[in-house]
Design a protein that fits this description.
Elements lengths: L2 E2 L18 E2 L30 H14 L21 H14 L22 H19 L1 H4 L8 E5 L7 E5 L7 E12 L23 E9 L7 E3 L3 E4 H15 L10 E2 L17 E2 L18 H8 L2 E2 L2 E2 H10 L6 H40 L1
Parallel strand pairs: 5-6
Antiparallel strand pairs: 1-2, 3-4, 4-5, 6-7, 6-8, 9-10, 11-12
């Protein structure tokens, strides 16, 4: 899958189109369940009365309509777009070059440390153990590739620096002997170990949009070990988005597009006076009025933001096997798993995979036979 713009498309619960983030394209949110006369694939039915229908069938059809009808369109504003940047601003050119560089990060990422001796059932803990080191290597790679993001030496004296427990995680700064540092832009940088338990990025991004400068970026770097269970960390293509857009879209989704029970309070408290590059003790987190599932800020679960990026990352092949298949295999082998039960589940999965593959191969063969017949018939 090629890198594109994961624009949160307007079919997310009726939202209008919006330009999105650089990275792997986002997905829309068509219902997928019970579209009447549509193409969603589950619960679809054609228009018109049923053949031989009677009162009972009509009542059943009416009940089915109520049960499987698509979610009603939620009234509200359209999905937010990325900030409208001044094309003549040097920062805009800098950000564009950084986006290109970040999307090609796997070519520049180097991590010499070798990981070995970790039990397969403990692999998920690497996200915690090595996450900070991975982010540090990304900062190092950015500074080493200065000729690519500053080819004309417009940003001499500026370097990328990582700061702990502050937003954003990385700043492009120039130190000065008088006054504070000059900050060009910031990057909220998150690592994602692809074999972590969740199968998706687990970080939270609850920063209010007011604390994000227009040129700031949100970057999520997926990584894995080159031998799956051991070896050196390898970075995959990251998700790159405007941090301000991500904050705005997360808020939009929470208030206008997510599935929630009728009457749920969708309000969000935004901290007053938030501004870019805040002090360490500044209040910059948005707080929802109600969050029973503790999901606010889990941007991986915000439909339309990074869905395709997550899917593409899980389809990467390592040693000839997709990440999602490694993930499924390792989840079966939990610490408490019964070996016989695991073997049975693996065997059942393999049989299903072979059945699906055989069915697909048969269908492809039939298409080839039909094509050959058409060619011979036309001759």
């Amino acid at each position: 899958m090629t890198a594109g713009s994961p624009a949160p498309r307007g079919d997310v619960s009726g939202a209008s189109n919006a330009s999105g983030a650089n990275g792997v394209g986002g997905v829309g949110g068509t219902s997928g369940v019970g579209d009447v006369g549509g193409t969603s694939g589950v619960g679809d039915r054609t228009d018109g009365p049923a053949v031989g229908g009677g009162p009972d069938l009509e009542a059943a059809a009416a009940e089915a309509d109520g049960l499987f009808a698509a979610e009603p369109e939620i009234l509200g504003p359209g999905a937010p777009a990325e900030p409208d940047l001044d094309p003549d601003d040097p920062l805009t050119h800098l950000q564009a070059r950084l986006r290109t560089l970040l999307l090609g990060l796997p070519a520049y990422f180097e991590f010499s440390n070798h990981v070995a001796g970790v039990n397969a059932t403990d692999l998920h803990s690497l996200n915690t153990l090595l996450g900070t080191s991975i982010e540090g290597q990304v900062v190092k790679a950015l500074n080493q590739q200065r000729p690519l993001w500053d080819p004309d030496n417009e940003w001499l004296g500026y370097t990328f620096e990582r700061q702990s427990q502050r937003f954003p995680d990385v700043r492009l700064v120039r130190k000065s002997s008088t006054g504070g540092p000059a900050i060009a832009l910031g990057i909220e940088l998150k690592g994602w170990f692809l074999l972590a338990k969740e199968g998706e990025p687990s970080f939270r991004f609850s920063t209010t949009a007011g604390a994000c400068a227009d040129h700031d970026l949100l970057v999520v770097v997926p990584w894995y070990l080159d031998n799956v269970l051991s070896g050196s960390p390898v970075a995959a293509q990251p998700f790159v988005a405007s941090a301000r857009w991500a904050a705005d879209y997360r808020t939009y989704y929470w208030q206008h597009a997510r599935d929630a029970a009728r009457g749920t309070d969708r309000g969000i408290h935004h901290p007053a006076g938030a501004r870019p590059y805040p002090a360490r003790d500044a209040q910059i987190a948005d707080v929802p009025a109600y969050d029973g599932g503790k999901n606010f800020g889990r941007v991986a679960r915000v439909r339309g933001m990074m869905d395709d990026f997550i899917q593409a990352s899980n389809e990467l092949e390592v040693l000839g096997i997709r990440i999602q298949d490694w993930h499924r295999f390792l989840r079966l082998h939990s610490d408490q798993a019964d070996p016989d039960v695991v073997s049975e589940k693996v065997e059942r999965s393999l049989r299903q995979a072979l059945h699906d593959r055989s069915a697909a191969a048969a269908a492809e063969a039939m298409r080839a036979v039909r094509t050959l017949g058409d060619v011979l018939g036309s001759g």
